[in-house]
Specification:
With about 130 residues, this protein is of the alpha+beta class. The protein contains four helices and six strands, in the order βααββββαβα. Strands 2-3-4-5-1-6 form a six-stranded mixed β-sheet, sandwiched between helices. The two termini are about 15 Å apart.
């Protein structure tokens, strides 16, 4: 997908890609569509209910993509200075503290990426890989 990146540890599959691949097909399709829309939306257009910008100082660089079917899925991401979107962490939200854990994890990943920018790779949807 244009302008969409994910964090990929060396020699491993990205957590974001692995999480999305195992979702129920209908929910996966909805989430991939939201990610596609995200790649076409300027930061000023990222508003609730589908997106949330965090206002706490420590997390102000982060946004949350929100999707639900029977379960609630969240994707923590940031918009890079060059306009690319970096998907950092995906999770199933069961409790309110799940978001704080994901934000902390995302903060660590962003720090790692500042030291190793080559670990930010283009996000390719499974259907795109097959063609």
């Amino acid at each position: 997908m244009d302008n969409i990146k994910v964090y990929q540890p060396p020699g491993q599959v990205s957590q974001v890609e692995a999480f999305i691949e195992v979702l129920h097909p209908k929910l996966r399709e909805k989430l991939v569509w939201q990610i596609f829309r995200l790649s076409r939306t300027p930061p000023a257009g990222l508003k609730e209910p589908h997106y949330k910008h965090f206002s706490i100082e420590k997390y102000r660089d982060f946004y949350e993509l929100r999707e639900k079917n029977r379960i609630v899925i969240r994707v923590i991401f940031t918009v890079l200075p060059n306009g690319e979107v970096l998907l950092l962490h995906t999770f199933q939200k069961r409790q309110s503290r799940d978001t704080m854990r994901a934000l902390e994890r995302s903060l660590k990943l962003l720090t790692l990426l500042r030291d190793h920018p080559e670990r930010a790779v283009e996000y390719i949807v499974e259907e795109e890989r097959k063609s």
